[in-house]
Amino acid sequence: MARPLDKLPTLAAAALVAIVSATAANGAQPQTVEIYSAGSLRGVVGNLTNEAATALGIEVKSTFGGSGSLRERIENGEKPDLFMSADVGSPRKLQAEGRTVVPVIAFARNRMCVVSPRAAGLTAANLIDHMLEKGVRVKTSTPIADPSGDYAWAIFDRIEQLRPGSGAILKGKAQALMSVKATPATPTQSAAAALFASHQIDMTLTYCSGFPALQKEVPDLTSFPVPPQLDPHPVYGMAVLSDKPGVLRLALLLMSERGQAIIAKNGLLAMGGAQDAHPHE
Question: 75 — phi, psi (to 5°)?
């Protein structure tokens, strides 16, 4: 029987402590740790990199992308030391394939938010009606390649339960926009900001943790968490793929009070934190 997710960090951290204790005696020198990470964790990984350098003497090399795509790269032979995914499904698949050195660790939670121009007047009360309006363009990430897309599809499935026939309409809207791209106004402008700025989309379903940065690029945007009955409760999982002491220490750092504070600082929810928190209110 699967163990509750809230207990996994303690259990896995205990396993990591045992392995680190066993390997620390080997006199390992400072190491470089390669991380493959979900794009929504850029801030977390950046802070973790700084903390690891000063506290542990570890250099972090990071690669970002959609968690599903990164998992496929690992399955095809690429060998990072640590995989930080925006879901637990991809790390569990690697564990089932015998690629991990400890059980999968659930290390953070997120929320899904609805983002739209303030002028649209979108609210939790009129959300479903507005999404279903003809001509309203609803953008999501691509399912399977990116868990954000999977979570959006889960929201559509919950809407389907409330209004039969709606799920297919919403998935059709999202699929129609998956290949739509806008030319960023500046080299640093994000893809989502470019789409809103060029008026190619009307709303998106995305992680709440990413909204503050998006709003800085497009100030007239607003957001709110999806209503509780639609919330898929995103959980982030970590796969430890190497038993190098530096990797294990880095994983322990992430699960420590300091690591969980880094997670909260970047708008995600620390494990065991309040589930109704809205990071940008």
Answer: -65, -30
